[in-house]
Design goal:
The structure holds two protein chains of two kinds. Helices cover 2% and strands 66% of the residues of chain A. By secondary structure, chain A is mainly beta. In chain A, a hairpin with a 3-residue loop joins strand 3 and strand 4. In chain B, the strands form two sheets. A six-stranded antiparallel barrel of chain B has the order 8-9-12-13-11-10. Classes of the chains: A mainly beta, B mainly beta.
Chain lengths: 236, 186
């Protein structure tokens, strides 16, 4: 089982919060800018503008290009702040594709709130690049706190990841073929190569099952520690 | 609820335009006749200079058009104009200013068409340039089907067709729309 867990390349998770390294040089893809001082260029088939509400709606083959990012979508809504005339929100819908640096993000919808420093990818959301990937029903990018939250999705770990720790909260599920782990919460530490499942933790493979309050799996030493638990072992 | 203009106010408005045109027509009596397609005489349009047309609804001036030269076609109730300056008003305030090379005023429909080098400006910094504009006096909507460039800080827009609602300041643009949004320096 340990050898099998060592091959785990993908964590299937219900909700994951990941802290990005400072400067965006860590595992987390740096978030797009759309900040003051930039000039955005867009093309589309159709435009509706409301100058009293400082709002533009672009429809059909929309392409928005900024200094460091590019958005493609079927519809894009842009709202400016009434006083500063800076971009307040971007709301892209329909086959959304966001390209920034070596990273590509796709989703059904992208909502970017500059004031809140927050971007959200919704519906079949996925970000990948440089051998890294995360996907889920939603991906929240907190630009101020440098935290990415993935809901009901998966995180593909890089072969030599710099991610110090992947913290998993609420209904953690780890899966690799017919091998599964489940817990209330968990931590995957790439520096030590260990996976800790806490709270109603369980690891199963075939007919074997490990249950406990806390299960620690070392992917380097291939040891499993179970605290206050039981092991049901059945040799196949 | 939309309040339709009373018949009397519309008539008054029409009279304003017709009065001006008639005055110029009288002044221009003696304009030579032209031949129609059958070789018969056809009445030539009255040619006037410094033409002015104002549409009013009750006490409100809706728009005011001045032209350096005008040809009045009485049967068609149309005035062809050149060297045009138009102010579209809401109350006493001019909300849109237009300048154009040529155009035609439809006295029956209270609308006009402009062609040539057209420039629209407003107090909020709007600068729209195109080569053909239709203004519907009833809906107060401007539209054009020629390439259009628009600037209104922080926007720069370009497209192939447009409509602009004067009362709501809502713009629609179609055909290879290009948008630039330049954020002000921090």
């Amino acid at each position: 089982m340990i050898a099998s867990l060592a091959r785990i390349a993908t964590l299937l998770i219900a909700a994951t919060a990941i802290r990005a390294a400072a400067g965006g040089g860590g595992w987390i893809p740096p978030t797009p800018a759309f900040q003051a001082g930039t000039e955005l260029h867009a093309t589309a088939d159709h435009l509706e503008g409301d100058f009293t509400r400082h709002h533009l709606l672009l429809v059909g083959n929309v392409k928005l290009v900024g200094d460091t990012q590019e958005i493609h979508a079927e519809r894009l809504s842009v709202t400016l702040d009434a006083e500063s005339r800076r971009i307040e929100t971007l709301d892209a819908k329909g086959q959304v594709r966001l390209i920034y640096g070596p990273y590509t993000a796709v989703a059904d919808r992208l909502v970017f709130d500059t004031a809140a420093g927050h971007a959200r990818l919704l519906g079949e959301a996925r970000i990948w690049g440089e051998g890294r990937e995360m996907a889920g029903t939603s991906i929240d990018l907190d630009l101020h706190r440098k935290v990415v939250e993935v809901t009901a999705g998966r995180v593909g770990l890089p072969a030599h990841g710099e991610l110090p720790a992947l913290r998993v909260a609420a209904d953690t599920i780890v899966a690799d073929g017919d091998r599964h782990g489940r817990a209330d919460r968990g931590t995957y530490d790439l520096m030590t190569g260990s996976l800790v499942l806490e709270g109603n933790a369980a690891l199963t493979e075939g007919g074997s099952r490990l249950l406990g309050d806390r299960i620690r799996v070392s992917l380097t030493t291939r040891q499993v520690q179970v605290e206050r638990g039981t092991i049901h072992y059945r040799q196949d | 609820m939309v309040r339709l203009p009373s018949l009397s106010s519309v008539l008054v408005t029409a009279m304003v335009g017709l009065l001006l045109a008639t005055v110029y027509f009288l002044l221009a009596s003696g304009v030579p006749t032209q031949e129609d397609g059958n070789g018969g005489p056809q009445e030539a349009p009255a040619m006037v200079s410094d033409f002015t047309f104002t549409e009013t609804r009750g006490e409100e001036t809706r728009w005011h058009l001045r032209a350096s030269r005008a040809l009045y076609f009485e049967e068609q109730r149309r005035v062809d104009v050149e060297g045009i300056v138009v102010d579209l008003r809401q109350g006493e305030v001019s909300v849109l200013h237009l300048e154009a090379t040529r155009g035609a005023v439809d006295l029956a429909a209270f609308s006009f068409d402009l062609t040539g080098e057209i420039v629209l400006t407003d107090p909020q910094g709007l600068d729209l340039r195109t080569s053909a504009v239709h203004f519907d006096g009833e809906t107060r909507r401007l539209s054009g089907v020629d390439p259009v460039q628009l600037r209104r800080p922080p926007y720069k827009l370009a497209g192939q067709r447009f409509t602009y609602e004067l009362t709501t300041q809502r713009l629609e643009m179609d055909g290879e729309v290009v948008v630039t949004v330049a954020e002000p320096p921090a």
